[in-house]
Write a structure and sequence with these properties.
mainly alpha; disordered C terminus; 8 helices; single chain
């Protein structure tokens, strides 16, 4: 679908993305139907598409931006807090499990350039993305401790 030419018209793309977000929400465990979890799932579904915004997510969930903000405030969070946490989780996973260039990781997380991503990553982890990846590569793989039969 991403290779389908849109000729500047995103109506088809928006419909597909809306259905996908709703599908992901329906797949969420019954025990966590909070607005925070719902918005986090929607963010994970749209991040990297250039459409991950509070306006788009609110519309996809069928609520106004103000109502979404009120519902999140009732859970003591905000869209930007959830976006930050999702970005943090995805960034750590991508830098740990892939060889993707840091500029690509930044782009996948909807950062316009590498410096804002690097600043955010330092805030989350205390180190730069490059230092984080280097530390992960130099540390020995984790092994499970199994008692030997000898």
């Amino acid at each position: 679908m991403l290779d389908y030419p849109t000729n500047g018209h995103l109506k088809l793309f928006k419909g597909v993305l809306d259905r996908y977000i709703r599908y992901r929400i329906r797949q969420m465990p019954v025990y966590d139907q909070t607005m925070t979890a719902t918005v986090a799932a929607a963010i994970r579904s749209t991040i990297g598409t250039g459409r991950c915004s509070v306006d788009f997510i609110a519309h996809s969930l069928g609520v106004s931006v103000k109502k979404l903000q009120r519902l999140l405030a009732l859970e003591n969070t905000s869209f930007s807090d959830i976006l930050d946490e999702v970005r943090h989780t995805i960034a750590v996973r991508l830098l740990s499990e892939s060889d993707a260039p840091i500029s690509r990781v930044a782009g996948l997380l909807d950062y316009s350039t590498v410096p804002p991503f690097t600043l955010a990553f330092r805030r989350w982890t205390g180190v730069s993305p490059r230092a984080f990846r280097s530390a992960r590569l130099s540390s020995p793989p984790e092994t499970s401790a199994c008692p030997s039969d000898s």
